[in-house]
């Protein structure tokens, strides 16, 4: 397979990981562990693998959140729940969410067990240097149940890819806010209003970033991508795919295609059962 095919498979499976950030079951479990609802619970659940890190580390590794928003939540989160408690709550919430969205019969199926084994094998091809969020999650113990193995493996693949994506954005000269604005402009990510609100950027900051991107020739005055902007985003995604190819090469073409074949019905079922709230992502 070409690297772009690796990227396509990775993105097609990502909802099975990303639903954890939108699941009421996960948030309920995190709040039950003592974490404040909302951004604090989110930051803690994803950053907990790195231990009691401060706001600077979370800002650096999460990249497109306003530093002030992060600082309101971290390190205060660790006074509400320890990283270990946050990780355990996250997994409990994922278990409940998968059972609600996919059903116990599906989770007990040989197809889910096979998908979990393939995803775990792919994750063995990931490497840690320069990839802090991946490395932190790779140090965690593997869960036992196949559907939780699948979630953990997909998390490793997602964070490995994400760490590389940040390197590609830095090399392209895009700050976290600029990366967010240009990604929204592709029509394939967050709706701009949702991105701005959830990432903590003010109207003035968003407008200033947009104006700077217009001046650089990457956005039109109306906020759409120019040809140069589209080329830059394509380059970033191509570089991300290139840096994320190792686990898929390790798994091999046959295994990667089989994992995609097994994963797509799970993704479709989760989406059909409301894995993500309406109005969050662009429909393009």
Automatic annotation (TrEMBL):
Superkingdom of the organism of origin: Bacteria
NCBIfam families according to UniProt: SCO6745_fam_HTH
Protein name per the record: SalK
Species for this entry: Nocardioides luti
């Amino acid at each position: 397979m070409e690297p772009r095919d690796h990227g396509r498979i990775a993105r097609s499976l990502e909802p099975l990981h990303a639903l954890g950030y939108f699941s009421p079951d996960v948030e309920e479990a995190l709040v039950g562990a003592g974490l404040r609802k909302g951004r604090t619970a989110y930051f803690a659940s994803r950053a907990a693998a790195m231990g009691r890190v401060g706001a600077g580390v979370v800002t650096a590794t999460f990249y497109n959140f306003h530093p002030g928003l992060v600082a309101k939540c971290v390190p205060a989160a660790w006074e509400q729940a320890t990283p270990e408690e946050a990780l355990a709550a996250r997994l409990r919430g994922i278990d409940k969410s998968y059972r609600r969205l996919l059903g116990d019969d599906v989770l007990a199926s040989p197809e889910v067990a096979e998908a979990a084994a393939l995803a775990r094998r792919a994750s063995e091809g990931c490497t840690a240097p320069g990839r802090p969020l991946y490395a932190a999650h790779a140090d965690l113990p593997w869960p036992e149940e196949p559907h939780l193995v699948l979630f953990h493996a997909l998390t490793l693949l997602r964070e490995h890819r994400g760490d590389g994506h940040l390197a590609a954005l830095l090399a392209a000269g895009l700050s976290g806010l600029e990366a967010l604005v240009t990604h929204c402009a592709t029509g394939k990510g967050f709706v701009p209003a949702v991105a701005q609100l959830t990432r903590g950027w003010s109207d003035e900051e968003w407008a200033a970033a947009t104006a700077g991107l217009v001046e650089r020739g990457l956005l039109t005055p109306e906020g759409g991508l120019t040809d140069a902007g589209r080329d830059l985003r394509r380059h970033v995604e191509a570089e991300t795919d290139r840096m994320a190819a190792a686990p898929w090469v390790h798994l091999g073409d046959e295994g990667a295609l089989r994992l995609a074949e097994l994963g797509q019905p799970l993704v479709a079922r989760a989406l059909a059962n409301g894995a993500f709230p309406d109005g969050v992502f662009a429909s393009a």
